[in-house]
Amino acid sequence: MIVLIAAAAQNNALGKDNQLLWHLPDDFKRFKELTSGHYIIMGRKTFESFPKPLPNRTHVIITRQKGYNPEGCIVVHDMESALEVCPKDQAVYVIGGGEIYNLALPYADRIDLTRVHASFEADAFFPEFDPTQWKLVSSVPHEADERHAQSFTFETWDRM
């Protein structure tokens, strides 16, 4: 199963200048719970936005750069190669950025989307997806609180 996992604003904003636009601890917790123990596919810029590789996950990095080879990671040059190196019998998570989500959307079986209830100025966006091709199977709202400046909803969409 190929799963796109993202947090996106109402206007599909993901980030700006390779940084997230919000701080949502419960979203980080969900991301860790879902992706731990799995292969995660990302673009080079997303990988480089981490202080270090994420623990207990196999990193598959898509880049056009020749000779790019961070220790302990699998480096490929296109989405098809990224999917080929991943196990076929378990969930594989695509974690961004915007260009990688666009490339992965046609292959995706599920979208685990944290919909942030605000709009932001951004330079990276989650792709529009046709709601007639997807079924919302779970929607869990989370109000803003002392740890979360924005309200948000955990949504799970399965391809029909």
From TrEMBL:
Pfam families membership: DHFR_1
InterPro entries linked to this entry: DHFR (IPR012259), DHFR-like_dom_sf (IPR024072), DHFR_dom (IPR001796)
Molecular-function GO terms, alphabetical: dihydrofolate reductase activity; NADP+ binding
Residues passing through the membrane, by range: none
Keyword Cell membrane attached: no
Enzyme Commission number(s): 1.5.1.3
GO CC list: cytosol
A biological-process GO annotation: dihydrofolate metabolic process
Ranges for domain DHFR: 1-159
Matches recorded under Gene3D superfamilies: Dihydrofolate Reductase, subunit A
Positions in coiled-coil regions: none
Catalytic activity: (6S)-5,6,7,8-tetrahydrofolate + NADP(+) = 7,8-dihydrofolate + NADPH + H(+)
Involved pathway(s): Cofactor biosynthesis; tetrahydrofolate biosynthesis; 5,6,7,8-tetrahydrofolate from 7,8-dihydrofolate: step 1/1
Keyword NADP: yes
Highest taxon above the source species: Bacteria
Record's function text: Key enzyme in folate metabolism. Catalyzes an essential reaction for de novo glycine and purine synthesis, and for DNA precursor synthesis.
Similarity-based family: Belongs to the dihydrofolate reductase family.
Name of this protein: Dihydrofolate reductase
Organism annotation: Flavobacterium silvaticum
